[in-house]
Design brief:
The chain is mostly beta strands. The chain is built from one helix and seven strands. Strand 2 and strand 3 form a beta hairpin. 20% of the residues are buried.
Length: 109
C-alpha cells in the first residue's frame, strides 16, 4: 500500500501567514486569541494558548486579522465557521502555545 505524505493529501495550497485571529470556542462559550502559521482556502494552522480546552471535532468561529494574500481574498471579510481537526499537544511551544489545525466548514473559493 502506497503512503502519501501529508502535503500530498492536501486539497488546497497552503500559504505561510502570520496574523492575529480571534476565535470563539463553542464548547466553552468563550473567545480566545490566536496567531496563524499558515492558511489555505480549506483551513489553517494556528498557535493558541495552551490553557484553551480544545479537542478535535469541536466547532469554532474564526475572525482573521489583516492579510495581503490575493489568493485568499474574502477570508477576512466575515467570521468563518470551522472545525478543529488536529491539536498537537506533544509539539507545545516553549512559550505555552499549541499548534492547532482547523478546517473551514465550507471551504472558501
Amino acid at each position: 500500500m502506497e503512503r502519501r505524505s501529508r502535503a500530498d493529501r492536501r486539497r488546497h495550497v497552503r500559504y505561510p501567514m502570520a496574523t492575529t485571529v480571534q476565535f470563539y470556542h463553542g464548547p466553552s462559550r468563550r473567545e480566545f486569541p490566536a496567531r496563524t502559521v499558515d492558511i489555505s482556502s480549506g483551513g489553517l494552522l494556528m498557535y493558541i494558548p495552551a490553557s484553551v480546552p480544545v479537542a478535535p471535532g469541536q466547532p469554532i468561529r474564526l475572525t482573521i486579522g489583516c492579510h495581503n494574500r490575493p489568493e485568499l481574498a474574502g477570508l477576512g471579510d466575515h467570521p468563518l465557521d470551522a472545525t478543529i481537526v488536529r491539536v498537537d499537544r506533544h509539539k507545545m511551544l516553549s512559550l505555552g502555545h499549541l499548534p492547532v489545525g482547523v478546517r473551514f466548514v465550507q471551504p472558501q473559493t
